[in-house]
Amino acid sequence: MDFDFTWLLFGLPIAFALGWLASRFDLHQLRVENRRAPKAYFRGLNYLLNEQQDQAIDAFIEAVQKDPDTSELHFALGNLFRRRGEYERAVRVHEHLLSRADLGHADRERAQYALALDFLKAGLLDHAEEALRKLDDTHHQEQAWLARLNLYERARDWTQAAEMAGRLQAAGQTDFSGRLTHYLCEQAEDAMRKQGDLAGARALLGQAIDASPDAARPRIQLAGLFAKQGNLDLALQQLMALPAHAPRMIPLIASELVRLAKATNQLAPARTLLQNAYQQTPSIDIADALVQADLSEGVPALQARRGYVDHMAHEPSLIAAARWLNSEPFADDDTRKALQGSLEHAVRPLARYRCAACGFEAQGYFWQCPGCQAWESFPPRRIEEL
Ligand SMILES: [Zn+2]
Fold first, then answer.
1. Number of domains in the chain
2. Residues 42 and 151 in one domain
3. Ligand 1 centre from 266 Cα, in Å?
4. What does the pLDDT average to over 214-243?
5. How far is the CA of 357 from the centre of ligand 1 (A)?
6. 169 in a domain, yes or no?
């Protein structure tokens, strides 16, 4: 079959001509862009390199005014200032971007978010919140909601935090139910402490239990509320229900459980609960509570406090040793005092709780870490037992 080469005669020159035109067009574009790249750019860069940042930023602003395509430069500059802790400058850059009428839709949202971050970092929470609110119904909406959630947590505004967590939960990416439960518990604490509103607190805690039936905190707080009202039976009931929902938290309530059981003459079931829990988790706090239960039932002190020795056979524990020694009758009182003082000194750091996320240590148990603000990041065991 003959192949028709005639098309080459016409086709090749046309292809060359088109290629040449395309390359001319590219070169033309490049020249236009080069001409457009304003001198202010380089002046700004020069200032920046000479550490004259005020002059540099003015030069860059001038550069951006002359060329609407340089918003990237602005964003980079704003981020740079924010990262260096120069928040006023970062705000100036981003506000300038926002004031430009020719800024595209996506860039406008991005600048608004960047401005909010500037305010957040600067600790200007009111301004930050206002800037974040403007990001509803934009691509940055979810980031803005998360930032607002953290902001309300910092301000301990639990009502707003709960509303925001609800929105994020509905948006559906991450599970916020754990945090929501804590917000309700915090609101209940505020209602009790600040307003003395026990009925309101009780309603909030009921809501929290309905939302997360297996959360320990609302049940423990509700027990505290009942105890405060003098309703010790109901308080005890709440704590006795804990093993079914959050057995690992029993060390936290063991001593209160014994106190309430003793006051309501229900030591036997409380003791059974604690013994079962101890089988699962031989915690010093549970061992301690069992000794207290024995003592309350009139078991002779020497015999009751064998509990500490038994615990040490289970788990070597300085805390148990110190508690055993605490009221052990010694022939020589000076020796006891000296021993006890040394042991207690050694025990103090071991009896703390430690955040699993950041390592923050505290004498008391925290639901929210004061160091890293994580929720329930403290294991309910003492450092010695970790
Ligand atoms: Zn922490």
1. 3
2. yes
3. 38
4. 96
5. 5
6. no
Could you tell me the residue range of the domain that residue 51 belongs to?
Answer: 38-155
Q: pTM of the entire structure?
A: 0.75
Report the separation in Å between the CA atom of 379 and the middle of ligand 1, taken as the mean of its atom positions. Answer: 11
Q: Count CB atoms within 10 A of the CB of residue 175.
A: 10
**Is the separation of the CB atoms in 109 and 78 below 8 Å?**
no
Q: Which of 267, 299, 316 is the last residue of a domain?
A: 316
Measured in Å, residue 348 CA sits from the centre of ligand 1 at: 20
CA 150 to centroid of ligand 1, rounded, Å: 15
* 260 and 304 fall within a common domain: yes
Neighbours of ion ligand 1 (CB under 5 A): 355, 357-358, 360, 369, 371-372
Confidence check: pLDDT of 233 > 90: yes
Residues 290 and 359 in one domain: no
Distance between CA atoms of 311 and 361, rounded to whole angstroms?
24
CA 207 to ligand 1 center in whole angstroms: 27
C-alpha 366 – ligand 1 centre gap (Å): 10
Average pLDDT rounded to a whole number, residues 79-97: 88
pLDDT tens by residue, 160-185:
999 999 899 888 778 898 999 999 99
Q: How far apart are CA 143 and CA 372, in angstroms?
A: 20
Residue 30 pLDDT:
46
* String of DSSP letters for 31-60: HHHHHHS-HHHHHHHHHHHTT-HHHHHHHH
- CB–CB of 127/121 below 8 Å? no
Between the CA of 35 and the centroid of ligand 1 the distance, in Å, is: 54
42 shares its domain with 150: yes
- CA of 180 from ligand 1 middle (Å) equals 19
Amino acid 1: pLDDT: 45
Report the first-to-last Cα separation within the chain, whole angstroms: 87
Domain at 272, CATH number:
1.25.40
Q: Output the CA 247–ligand 1 centroid distance in Å.
A: 23
| C-alpha 353 to ligand 1 mean position (Å) | 11
56 and 124 fall within a common domain: yes
The CATH number covering residue 59 comes to 1.25.40.10
Task: Calculate how far, in angstroms, residue 349's C-alpha sits from the geometric centre of ligand 1.
Answer: 17
The Cα–Cα gap between 117 and 302 comes to 62
